[in-house]
Amino acid sequence: MRPLTVQPMNDAVSELPAGSPSSEATLLRSVDAAGAPVDSPELWIGVHIFDPGAVSLERLATSAQRFTPRVSLVAPDGLLLEVKGSLHLFNGTDGLIRALANECGTAGIKPAIALAPTPLAAMVAARVGKPFIVTNAAQLVGRLSPLPLTPLRWPQDVVERLARMGVRTIGQALRLPRAGFARRFGPEHLAELDRLTGRNADLRHHFQPCERFRRRRELTYELENNEALLAVLAPLLADLGKFLRERQCGVTELECRLRHRHAQPSRCILRLAAPVADVARLTELLGERLSALTLPEPVRSCEIRSGLPVRRVLASNPLWQPGEYGGSGGPEAPELIERLRARLGHEAVYGLQMLAGHRPENAWSTREPAAVNGSGAANDSGSRLALFRSTQAVPAPPPWPAFRRPLWLLHAPQQLEEIDGAPRRRGSLRFFGDVERIETGWWDGGDVGRDYYTVFDIYGVQLWIFRERAEPHRWFLHGVFG
Question: Which of 273, 275, 255 is nearest to 265 (CA)?
């Protein structure tokens, strides 16, 4: 195989000795600034942070988006920026790197910055810590050749095996036969060398910051009327609607903070069953919550904060109306959940889900009500909407357990009175059906041994009772059938 040749460095690109007074912010004269064209289809800037704990990588990436939208994270101490389209905005590579160095200095960090036609080459060169600017793809291999293998961050045993063979630089690794290198050190390291030199594409995931809406309005006069507060919040909600439309998103949580002169701020939290972006609907629901809020003092300022935006799945309306000619349910279920929560409180409306457990009190738990899609079906077939322990129709649960169970369970079993060993509640009880024995829970300290019966009282109410299998064999009421 024909070995790769190492091309000499371009004399137009000079280097400064490491540790010089201006080594942190001194920038080399780039090739394009000297008059040579930038022939690479992409140009990447690698930013290596010597003290990763000094600043959040996500925060620095958000600040770097003022230079280019194509920013990628290289955890835990690096950033990559594709800047080919941004050079003319900063007077070439010199101005762009200088502006980026100033941005990092404002954040309180001292980075090492390098520029190369491939992202991995820019990152590896930045880790070396010396000035490195290459805009011509033909010069990339020559500039990378004298760099050590350590910035590639290969496993230590691989680096030591290569060192024993006399291979300590990237150029020496590139001269090795490809087939033998892949056989001895793995094809993934050979593929990494190909991405380093631009032989293969190096796809990077672009960083997207988590955006939240937040607006505040100071009042020139104090307010204590809820309707007047809603009118003051209207411009903020209009800005929220514009924010969501531009991103094709909705919100599932909205918080309104009302600040007073002496008292602590009043918080009004609105939780939604499905992502909502309609300003009129948000205004109506927020008005319901504000009407139930008691203010300790007049309001001096108000603020709107949103949760994380959620991407909306838009769907067209069905041909038939809900319930007409077999038409499916419409989008009323989420609106009903939100309206009830706005009027009754978040804790009053919840969902139920089944759990794998034989003990009745451990076989279910509360959860967020399941959102309903355009077809009217719940996204989670195992969840049920509970409104003060009432339910809506959902697909039938799996055929377990074999015995019928009541939906309404008491928070704690209620002991029944007995006459001659027979249970009573408002009179005698009439037994119906077979007995169900539950004996389980020994492994977690909550072991139970019970025999469950279905009974009717003198008023025809169907009850679910059990008798302890251990002494003293007491009777308890545990549930009521609907």
Answer: 255
d(CA 391, CA 407): 9
What is the pTM for the complete model shown?
0.49
Distance of CA 452 to the CA centre of its chain: 44
Which class for 321: exposed (0-12), middle (13-18), buried (19 or more C-beta within 10 A)? exposed
Q: Please name the residues in contact with 397: beta carbons below 8 A apart, sequence gap of 6 or more.
A: 354, 382
CATH of 44-197 among 2.60.120.10, 3.60.20.40, 2.60.40.10, 3.30.70.270: 3.30.70.270
Let me know: does 216 contact 239? Beta carbons within 8 Å. Answer: no
* Own/partner long-range contacts of 396-399 (Cβ < 8 Å, ≥24 apart): 397/354
Find where tokens 């992502």 sit. 275
CATH number of 214-311: 3.30.1490.100
Q: Are 111 and 104 in contact (CB under 8 A)?
A: yes
- CA 150, 154, 156: angle at the middle one, nearest 5? 80
- Asked if residue 21 has a cis previous peptide bond (ω within 30° of 0), the answer is no
Q: Where are the domains of the chain?
A: 44-197, 214-311, 408-480
Tokens 């796809």 belong to: 203
Q: DSSP alpha helices (H): ranges in 391-473?
A: none
Q: What is the mean pLDDT of each run of 10 residues along the chain (482 residues)?
A: 39 35 35 48 92 80 90 92 92 91 87 94 94 92 94 94 94 94 93 94 86 90 86 92 88 92 91 87 89 89 91 70 56 71 76 80 77 44 38 44 75 90 90 88 84 92 92 92 81
